[in-house]
Every structure is written in C-alpha cells, then in structure tokens.
Amino acid sequence: MPPLTIIGSPPSAATQRVLVVARLLKLEYTLHRINYRSKEHKSEDFLATKNPFGLIPVLQDGDFTLYESRAICKYLIAKYQGDSSVQLLPSDVEGVAQVDQYMSVETCQFEPICDAFARETLLKKIRLGQSPDPEKVKQYRQDFTNLLTTYEHILNGKRYLCGEFMTLADVCHLPMGQYMSILEQRTCYYQRIGQMLRVGGDLSGKRKLGKKCGFLRRQRYDVL
Amino acid sequence: MPPLTIIGSPPSAATQRVLVVARLLKLEYTLHRINYRSKEHKSEDFLATKNPFGLIPVLQDGDFTLYESRAICKYLIAKYQGDSSVQLLPSDVEGVAQVDQYMSVETCQFEPICDAFARETLLKKIRLGQSPDPEKVKQYRQDFTNLLTTYEHILNGKRYLCGEFMTLADVCHLPMGQYMSILEQRTCYYQRIGQMLRVGGDLSGKRKLGKKCGFLRRQRYDVL
C-alpha cells in the first residue's frame, strides 16, 4: 500500500470525516497535524502544493494530492474499499446515486445549520469574546429541529439513510452531528441525532464499530 | 430508454445544472415545470413522493426517484454517458476524485458566495422591496473576486478545471456563474468568469456546444 498522509486538524469536522473513513477501511496513514498558530495552511508552500484555497484536510497518496473532505472519502473508498469488510458505497448505479443524494443534503442543508449554530453558541465566545444572540440561537435551533423532523420521516422503516446498511452518507453526518449532540446534550439532542442517523451507537464506542472510532469522541471532548 | 422526467423550474440554477447535463448527453426527457404559485413543491404529495425537503429539481427515471441536482447529474452520467460522445466524468479513480474535488469547491465556496450576492443585489428587491446594503455588496464582491483569483491560479496552464477536457465540475459552475455574469456584466465579470471556467464560450452559443445549451441563456434573460 502506498504511504497515505492526511494533513488536517482532528478537531475539525472535515478532518474527522476523512479520519473516520480511513479507520473504517482499516487504512494505514500518517496524520500531519496542521500548525494553525504559524498559519501553515496559508503558507506559500501549502497554497502551491497542497490546497490553493488554504483549507484542510488534504490527502497525499504517493504523488497524488487531493482536497475537500467528501471527495477524499469517496476516493479512499473507490481505491481501497475492495480490501475492506466495510462497504460504504454500493456497487449499483441507483445505490450510489442515493448516497450522493444524502451526501448533498448533508453538505447543503445539515452542515450549514450545524455550522451556524456552533458559530453562534461556541465560536463567537471563544474567538470574539461575545455572547450568543438569543434570537439567532432560537432560530437555528428551530431550523435544526425542522430538519431532524424531515430526517425522521426519511428514516421511517429504515435503519440507515440508504436502507439497512451504513453508507458514506451516514458517516458524513457524524462529525457535525456529534458537535450538535455535545453542544445540545442537555436537551436530548444526542439521543435524537443518534436515533436519527443510526450511527451514534455504531460509531461512539457502544457497538462493534465503536472501538475503531472511539478516538473521535475523546478528541471532541478535548477540544470542547 | 426509460421515460425521464425532470421536475423543476428553468430559472433555478439547480434545475439548469440538470438540464445542461441532460442536453449534453442528448437525453430525451419531459420537463415538468413546478407551480410555485400553488406551492406544488410543498404539497403533501410532493413531499411524500418526490422530495421530503420540498426542493427542486427532482428526477424520475421510470420508478426511480432522485433529488439534489448534483446527485442527479452524476446519476445521469453514470447511467447514460456510455451512449454519448460527451464524457463528463473520467473513468479512472484519480480523475473522478478531481471532479469530486472541484464539485465540492463549487458547492461549498462558489455557490454560497454567488447566492449571497444574488440575494442581496436582486432577490432582496424583488421579494422584499428592499434596497441592497452597499457594505454587504462590497464584501460579497470582494469575496467573489478573491475566489476568482484562486480559480485563475488553478486554471493556469489548463483549459478546464481538470485539464484539457470539460467535465461535470465545469458544468456545475455554469448556472451560478452565468447569474454572476448577468448581475455584474458592467464590470467585466462575464469575461472573467468565461475565461476562468473555460465554459462560457463553449456553453453560451459561441462554440460547438453552444447550440445545445443556448436555451439556458435565453431563459436566464427571460427571468432577469
């Protein structure tokens, strides 16, 4: 196997997305933790050779370099899923299309709401020393609740988003879903998200897959 | 070929993304124009059988239903590209990964900036009767200019985002790119976007592919 290097920061949701997939596929990799303090990700070398947008994560697979977390996940699966017992992408055209559909929902609807909520309730205080705006928090919480209601409708009678097996679509929801569960743990969001995506149990140390990804929850708590 | 139905609204950028791909692949399809006035896309039937999020476009291919425009594009290519002379997705793992990478950049960076700009300069007036906030317009314009600078860096020495051939990554940029070109035509954005993505000429009626997609520009102008 060629040497894989994942350049990122474990607290970042996008990096976690790639790390979870790498762990599920049992891939050997080197994690290069980006140095935020020295602004390594905005350095001339990083922009020229890793990602011109100055964002993480970045994957290096031999001479091949790739950025954007969801694209990296799909690449790792396309190239290495064959060696793994975990099948995160189906082999039929319709099955792949459904995974793409729910990944797009995660990208365009789920993450933006989670991100806005996290910025208002957590990052605003940490980065700017400002208090959350109660009206915005109320609105984002309502938006998220409405979204979960639709997810519950989708998951009615199914174990995972695409049916009986966990796919990349479920995994992609995990990092921001866990942020929301931690930020909102007092209001039972954890249980609701876990039940909603059917991945909380599988990926949080409670079931079979948990041991592979338990590192994720610990790092979350370290950050928060 | 099974009967394809595209449910959407031609002025919507997401619908246009699917229509362009369908035209490039020379697919026969029925376009069902959604009735916004009767809120057809929020009706009980639409939410239950088409898209639970109440959004367009939706594809129906026989009994198979799919939503989210970029997922629909990939599905159409995976299923029907074989019959077409246009190759919008490469066949190698690294090539597909690069298309995914630039599609993700389009989704997460390009569209949000274009969308924010269009909302402030156009939709705010149409929908709310309010004037644009000059400070916001200035900020969005600067954000977009910065983004274009990075795209120009990426395209240095290449004809398209992924090399010498137009892929789905380029096509996905077209609808919002054209909105920007129309909104900002007095400031030479059209030329800059066209040059940037190398698709303006190819898809606007000036070159070989233009005739297939010229309908798009006309519909744009009808809307605006």
From TrEMBL, chains A, B:
<dbReference type="InterPro" id="IPR010987">
    <property type="entry name" value="Glutathione-S-Trfase_C-like"/>
</dbReference>
<dbReference type="InterPro" id="IPR004046">
    <property type="entry name" value="GST_C"/>
</dbReference>
<dbReference type="Pfam" id="PF13409">
    <property type="entry name" value="GST_N_2"/>
</dbReference>
<dbReference type="GO" id="GO:0005737">
    <property type="term" value="C:cytoplasm"/>
</dbReference>
<dbReference type="GO" id="GO:0043295">
    <property type="term" value="F:glutathione binding"/>
</dbReference>
<dbReference type="InterPro" id="IPR036249">
    <property type="entry name" value="Thioredoxin-like_sf"/>
</dbReference>
<dbReference type="Pfam" id="PF00043">
    <property type="entry name" value="GST_C"/>
</dbReference>
<feature type="domain" description="GST C-terminal">
    <location>
        <begin position="92"/>
        <end position="224"/>
    </location>
</feature>
<dbReference type="GO" id="GO:0004364">
    <property type="term" value="F:glutathione transferase activity"/>
</dbReference>
<keyword id="KW-0808">Transferase</keyword>
<protein>
    <recommendedName>
        <fullName>glutathione transferase</fullName>
        <ecNumber>2.5.1.18</ecNumber>
    </recommendedName>
</protein>
<dbReference type="InterPro" id="IPR036282">
    <property type="entry name" value="Glutathione-S-Trfase_C_sf"/>
</dbReference>
<dbReference type="InterPro" id="IPR040079">
    <property type="entry name" value="Glutathione_S-Trfase"/>
</dbReference>
<dbReference type="InterPro" id="IPR004045">
    <property type="entry name" value="Glutathione_S-Trfase_N"/>
</dbReference>
<dbReference type="GO" id="GO:0006749">
    <property type="term" value="P:glutathione metabolic process"/>
</dbReference>
<feature type="domain" description="GST N-terminal">
    <location>
        <begin position="2"/>
        <end position="84"/>
    </location>
</feature>
